[in-house]
Amino acid sequence: MIKVDELSHSFYVGKKNKRQEVPVLKSINLEIHEGEVVSIVGRSGSGKSTLLNLMSGYIKPTSGDLHIKETRVTDFTEAKWASFRSDHLGFIFQSFQLIPSMTAYQNIELPLVMKGIAEKERTVLVEQMLEKVGLADYSDHYPSELSGGQQQRVSVARALIVNPPIILADEPTGSLDQETEEELLSFIKQLNKEENITFVIITHDDEVADIADRTIRLEDGFLVPNEEEAGR
Ligand SMILES: Nc1ncnc2c1ncn2[C@@H]1O[C@H](COP(=O)(O)OP(=O)(O)OP(=O)(O)O)[C@@H](O)[C@H]1O
């Protein structure tokens, strides 16, 4: 589903004549299979978000190769990435990243508008999705009128609305209380089981790592070999 080969990434900081290379990811090899829930853990600064941003096409690798759904995306232009993302990837963030001036309904509808889906069809899909995430009564609420857990459900609904086979999540439970976190995790597990959606989840949270089929650990930009896999 996602194949990462010898992927390295450096940032360059400082002024032109004093440009300094900051190597962040170092020869990462990794394969994520269809239907897996994979958590990515590691200390702050270990490169987790950089890896997710590479998988999303928001940054380009310095070297190495990346395939998603058997498509080589390494050299994609921004336009190609934008269309690939809208067909294959959904995103969930710690800070929800909802548009404050749009209602729950409009936030969920947005990816369909961007895909050029007709209004009639959008209405059916958004209403179904509001039911599915238990927010049918909150469709006209703005993000500021929703609890953290409800906002996260809107953001999950927005990620799901285009039926992506893969969802990439950066600390999705980071802003939630214990109970809401458990709700979100069981919803993720349910989506994974019933709809075979592949999840890649960055987390600091042991409970998220607990629902994952596999945990990948980054340390200073290197992937730490998984003992179980290394022993096979
Ligand atoms: N745009 C950038 N320019 C320069 N350095 C960057 C940039 N983005 C990230 N870095 C550096 O890359 C390293 C890895 O950052 P990254 O955000 O991937 O870590 P992380 O594991 O996700 O951390 P956290 O858990 O705190 O979110 C850090 O040392 C960071 O300072």
Automatic annotation (TrEMBL):
Example GO molecular function: ATP binding
Any Pfam family hit: ABC_tran
PROSITE patterns for this protein: ABC_TRANSPORTER_1, ABC_TRANSPORTER_2
Similarity field: Belongs to the ABC transporter superfamily.
Keyword Transport (UniProt): yes
Ranges for domain ABC transporter: 2-230
InterPro entries reported for this sequence: AAA+_ATPase, ABC_transporter-like_ATP-bd, ABC_transporter-like_CS, ABC_transpr_LolD-like, MacB-like_ATP-bd, P-loop_NTPase
Protein name: ABC transporter ATP-binding protein
Keyword Isomerase: no
Xref: CDD domains: ABC_MJ0796_LolCDE_FtsE (cd03255)
Cellular-component GO terms for this entry: membrane protein complex; plasma membrane
Keywords noted in UniProt: ATP-binding, Nucleotide-binding, Transport
